[in-house]
Each structure stands twice: as structure tokens, then as C-alpha cells.
Amino acid sequence: MSIHPTPSPESARQHESDVRGAVRDLLQAVEGLKRDHHNDPDLRRLQVDAQRVAEDVDLLLGPSTAAPEGAQDVIPDEDYPPGFFADAEDEGVGRHR
After folding, report:
1. How much is the pLDDT for 93?
2. For the chain, which ranges sit under pLDDT 70?
3. In the chain, how many domains are there?
4. Does some domain include residue 72?
């Protein structure tokens, strides 16, 4: 019998987001240390440890579904269904009929 309540799906997603954000921040901060500690063995160990934390998070939570940095959204080159833009406001750009 568990004494801890099961977290809600929203709460679980927030925790996952928080952990992934913290790991991303850690990796960026460790990368920033390279300016001051070029070839320091302790920095290399810290880099390995930080990467291991990132890998452990992926093992626990599954691979991140976030788009990789620099990735672009792909918009399919096909016709939109009628009414797709029916409730959109005319923004005054483009050709008018």
C-alpha cells in the first residue's frame, strides 16, 4: 500500500518539464565553463557527469519529444480544407480581391 498519492498527469508533465529544463541548464552551464577551464580534468569529469544525468533522465522518462535546437517545423505543401481560415482576421497583407 502506497502512502504517496499518484500525481496527476498535469503534475507529472510539469515535473518532467522541470527536470528536462534543469538538465538543459546544467549542460549549458558546464559548456560555459570551458572558457575559464579549458582542458581541466575536473571539467572533463563534470562534462561526463552532466551528460550522464541527461542520459539517465532519458532512460527514466523516455527520449525528449521536444524538437532539437535549430529544428524547423515542416508545413505540408498541400491544399487546406475549405473553411480552414474562415475565422481568421484579414491582417491587410497580401493580395485583396
Report:
1. 62
2. 1-2, 4-5, 66-73, 89-97
3. 1
4. no
For the four alpha carbons of 94, 74, 80 and 65, in that order, the dihedral sign comes to negative
State residue 10's pLDDT score: 85
Residue 86 lies in a domain: no
Q: How does DSSP classify residue 39? A: T
Distance CA 84, CA 13 (A): 31
Distance, in Å, from the CA atom of 17 to the CA atom of 97, rounded to the nearest integer, reads 46
Q: Where are the alpha helices (DSSP H) in 8-91?
A: 9-32, 41-61
pTM exceeds 0.85 for this model:
no
Taking the C-alpha atoms of residue 95 and residue 19, their distance in angstroms, rounded to an integer, is 47
